[in-house]
Amino acid sequence: MPPLRDSGADPEAERPEYAGQYRLEARLGSGGMGVVHVARSSSGLSLAVKVIHAEFAQDSEFRGRFRQEVAAARRVSGAFTAPVVDADPDAERPWMATLHIPGPTLSDHVKRNGPLAPNEVRKLAAGLAEALRDIHRAGVVHRDLKPSNVLLAADGPKVIDFGISRPSDSEMRTETGKLIGTPPFMAPEQFQRPREVGPAADVFALGSVLVHAATGSGPFDSESPYLVAYQVVHDEADLTGVPQELAPLIESCLAKDPEDRPTPGELMELLHTEIHTELDLGLPPVPRVPSASGRPPVSTSARIPAQRQPAGTDSAPSPAEATHVRARTARPPDPPEETGRNGRNGGNGRGGRAGPAGRTGPEADGGAGRTRRRWPVWAAVALLITGAGAFVGVRALSPGDDAGLQTRAPQAEAEIRPWHTTVAHRPDGHRSEMPFCAAGSGAVFCSLSGLRAGRFDAATGRVSWHRDGKVVPRTDTPPTAPVLSGGLLYVWTADSKRLEALDPTAKGKGVTRWSQDLSGYEGGAAVIGDRVLLCAGDGTVTALDSATHRQRWRKRYPAHTPATLFSYGDPRTVYAVDLTPDSKGTQITAISLKDGAVRWARRLPGSLTPAGVGSSGALYFTAATPEQPFTTIAVVRYDPRTGHPRRIPLATPLDGTVTAAVHGETVYVLAEGGSLQAVGERKWSTETSVSRASAPVLSDNRLYFTAADGRLLAVDTRTGALLGQTSPRLAADRHNGYLETLPAPVVDAHHGRVFASAPDGTVFAAQTKDPSRW
User: Fold this and answer.
1) How many helices, marked H, and strands, marked E, lie in the chain?
2) Please, which residues bridge with residue 591 across strands?
3) Quick count: other Cβ atoms within 10 Å of Cβ 57?
4) How buried is 583 (Cβ within 10 angstroms: 0-12 exposed, 13-18 middle, 19+ buried)?
5) Considering only CA atoms, which of 342, 326, 341 is closest in space to residue 378?
6) Measured between alpha carbons, how far is 159 from 301 in angstroms, rounded to an integer?
7) C or N terminus of the chain, fewer CB within 10 Å?
C-alpha cells in the first residue's frame, strides 16, 4: 500500500520511538487522526502500528471511541481482515498494531492499471462476499466498505478500516455532525434512517465497489456528496460498462430496499467461485519502506478509518416482572425526508412499525402524522420477566444437522450439570431467527417462528414437549419471549396476531387453554404480574386476570396512543413511557396494575430511554442531547416523591445503541462497542471487547450478557472485572443471515444456574458459582 498522505504535523513530534514494546522502524505516512509506522514483533512478525496524533490523544471522548473501535477490530480479526496483534487505547499516545498485508488497495490498483477483467471482478465479488459473511457472523456491520478499504492480497481480498474516528476526513455528515460513511458507497438507509443500518448496507456497498472495479467509476458519481446522496436514494444505478454476465447480480446488490438485497451467503451460492483463488492481476511489486533492521517491511493495512456508528441491534432491558410486545403492523417504508432522527432501533432499514414502546413515521392517530420515537429496547419488545429474569434466544439451524430436537448429555461440574440443547432447525435458505425463552417452574420455555413453544428441563435440557407453529418470514420485529403468569404459559404467534395461553406443565404438553385475537389492538398485548393488558391504538388499555381471563378494568390514557407499558421492581405499578408529540420531552405515567388508576404523571425534558427502577423507587433513564441524539451522555434519575430529576454525566459518552440495567442505585450501561460503565452509587468503567452484546442481566453482584458469537460473559458489578466467559458457539458452516437482536441470559439464582443461547442453534446452561471455570 502506498504511504498515507502527510497531514502537515511536525514529523519529529509525530514519530515516537516506541508504541508499547514495539520499536517503530519507519514511518509510512499519516492520516487525519494518526500516523502509521512499520514495526516488528519480538518473534519477527512485520506489523503496521497506528499511533494517534497527540492532539486527539488529549480528547477523552475520542479515547472512548478509539477504545470501542479497537475492541470491534479485535472481534473481526480473521482470514478476511487485518488481524489485530496488540493495542493500548489508554496509552499516552493511543496505538493499535495489526499484521501487515502485502498488496495495494483496490482503489490504487484501478488507478494504476485500469478496471479489472470480468473474471477478476467475479473472483473479487466472491472473496468480498465471504469476507462480509465472516464479518457479519462476528456481529459487526462495516458501514464504510469502499475500494480504498479493500486490500488485494495474494490469498484474496481483505477488508480493512473498521471505524476509528476521523471527523475531519469526510464530506458527508449527519445533522448531528457524526460521520456516517463515504457517500458514493453508502446505502439509501444510511442517508434516510442512519439508526437502522444493518448488514444489507454492506451488500449495497459491495455492489458499488464491484461497479468501481469493473468500470473505474462508481454507480453514483458527482463532485457534490449531497448530489450523490440524492442519487443513491432516488436514482437508478449507472451500470454502463459492467460485464453483462455480472450486471443482474450487481443490480440486486444495489436494490433500494434492504430486504430485496441478497445476503453474502446467497451471493456466494450465486457466484460458485472458489474464494481463496489468487487474484492474477499482473500487479507491479508493492513499494517497500526500508526498516532500521535492514529487513524490508511491507505496506500496511492499519489505516486511519472514519468514524461510524457501531452495528446495532436493540436488545431487551434488564430483568423485571412482565413482558410486553406490540402487534406488528406493516406499512410502507418511510419516505426519504423522514430520517428517523429520534429512532433508536437498530433494525434492518425497513420503515415498518416497531415494537411496543416506540414507533417511527406517521402514527395512526387520526392523521396527525407526528413522528414518534423508536425506543432501542422497547421498539421490538419490552421484556420484563417474573421471578427468574430475562429471556434467552438462539438462531435457527439449517437442515444439515440431525433432524428433530436434540440434547447433548450433561457433564458434571460442581453442583451444576451443564447442558446444551438444539432448539429448532430451519429449511435450506430460511433466514436465521432467534427463539426467545423464559425460565420458571423448573423448566426453560422457548418460542420462535415454526415453534409455538417448547419446554426444556432446567436441570438437564431434555425436551419435555414442543408445539410446532407456522414458519413465517422474518420481520423487523423479533419474536417474543413466553411469559409465565396465572399458572399458564403465554406465547405470541410468530406474526404477533394472536396471544395464546398454554398449559406449561410436563403433563399438560402445551395444550392451548385460551387465546385472544390481537388484530384489533394496535399496541398488542402485555403480560405484567397477574394481568393481561390489551392495548388499543387510541390509548385504551383493557386488563384481564391472567388466570381466569375475566376483565378487571378498562381505562384510556390519551397521552399514550397506544400505551407503551413496562414494569420494574414494584408489581403493583406499570409505567407508560413515550416521546411527547413535539419530540422535545418524554411523557411518563405511573398506572396502578390493580385498577388502572393513574398514580402520577410527569413530562421530563429531553428524549429519554427507560433503564429501570432503583431500590428507592426512583426511575432511571439514559439520555442524549438534541445535538447528539445517537450519543448517550448521561443517566437521568427521577424520584416521584420529590418530583425532581437529576442528571448524572457518564464518564465517557457512548456512541450507538446502549442497553442498561439497574441494581440498587447504580445503573450499568453497556454500549455496542463493548464499553461498560457503572453510574451512581458505584462508579467504574471497563472494556469488554464485545462489539455487539445483549442487554445485561443482574444477579448476586454479577452482570451477565451474551455476545454475538454465542459467548456468555460475567462481570463483577462491584469492580467491573471480567469473571469469566464461555467459548464461542458459532455455526461454522452456516451463512443464513445476521441476527439483529441478541437475547439476554436468564438467571436462576435459586439453583445457581444461568441459561444463554448462541448462533449455533443451542440453549445452554452454566453454573453461576464460579464463572472462571466456564
Assistant:
1) 9, 43
2) 574, 598
3) 18
4) middle
5) 326
6) 9
7) C
Residue 733 has pLDDT above 90, yes or no: no
Q: How far apart are CA 347 and CA 376, in angstroms?
A: 10
**Vertex 256 angle, CA 211 and 431, to 5°:** 100
Give one word for 357, left, alpha or beta, with left for phi > 0 and alpha for psi -120 to 50: alpha
pLDDT per position as a tens digit, 621-633? 999 877 777 789 9
Taken as a whole, the chain contains a residue count of 774
Three-class DSSP category at 252:
helix
Which cell is 506 given?
410436563
Give the burial class of 177: count Cβ atoms within 10 A of its Cβ; 0-12 exposed, 13-18 middle, 19 or more buried. Answer: exposed
The residue among 159, 157, 161, 81 whose CA lies nearest residue 121 is: 157
Nearest to residue 182, comparing CAs of 301, 70, 308? 308
Per-residue pLDDT at 456? 94
State the Cα angle at 692 between 689 and 698, rounded to 5°: 85
CATH number of 18-271: 1.10.510.10
Contact partners, residue 370, CB within 8 Å, separation at least 6: 362, 363, 581
Nearest to 150 by CA among 213, 99, 200: 213
d(CA 126, CA 128) in angstroms, rounded, equals 6
Among the residue ranges 147-156, 292-301, 558-567, 577-586, the one predicted with the least confidence is 292-301
CATH superfamily, domain at 322-773? YVTN repeat-like/Quinoprotein amine dehydrogenase (2.130.10.10)
Q: Which of 13-17, 250-254, 338-342 has the lowest mean pLDDT?
A: 338-342
Assigned C-alpha cell, 422: 438444539
Cα–Cα distance measured from residue 570 to residue 595, given in angstroms and rounded to the nearest whole number:
15
- Sign of the Cα torsion 634, 637, 642, 643 reads positive
One-letter identity of residue 440 = G
Yes or no: say if 541 and 521 are a contact pair by the CB < 8 Å rule: no
Query: Is residue 376 within a helix (H) or strand (E), and if so which, with residue range?
Result: none
Grid cell 477478476 is found at 120
Q: Report the distance separating Cα 538 and Cα 94, nearest Å.
A: 53
Which pLDDT does position 98 carry in this prediction? 86
Overall pTM > 0.90:
no
Cβ–Cβ < 8 Å for 49, 85? no
- 643 by Cβ neighbours in 10 Å (0-12 / 13-18 / 19+) ranks as exposed
Q: Is 181 left (phi over 0), alpha (psi -120 to 50) or beta?
A: left
**Which cell goes with 703?**
452482570
Q: Each residue of 540-550: b (16+ CB within 10 Å) or e?
A: bbbbbebeeee
Cα–Cα distance for residue pair 418/762, rounded to 1 Å:
13
CA 188, CA 757: separation in Å to the nearest integer?
A: 33
Give residue 108's identity as a one-letter amino acid code. D
Q: In what order do the strands lie in the sheet with 697-699?
A: 697-699, 702-706, 712-716, 722-725
Q: Nearest CA to 258 among 734, 740, 657, 691?
A: 740
**Structural domain boundaries in the chain:** 18-271, 322-773
Q: Which helix (H) or strand (E) holds 547?
A: none
Establish whether the linkage from the previous residue to 317 is cis, with ω within 30° of 0: no
512 residue type, one letter: T
Q: Which residue has the cell 466467559?
A: 725
Of 684 and 330, more confident? 684
Report the C-alpha gap between 344 and 277 in whole angstroms. 41
**What does the alpha-carbon distance between residue 475 and residue 345 come to, in Å, rounded to a whole number?**
14
- Alpha helices of 162-246 — where are they, by DSSP H? 188-192, 199-215, 225-234
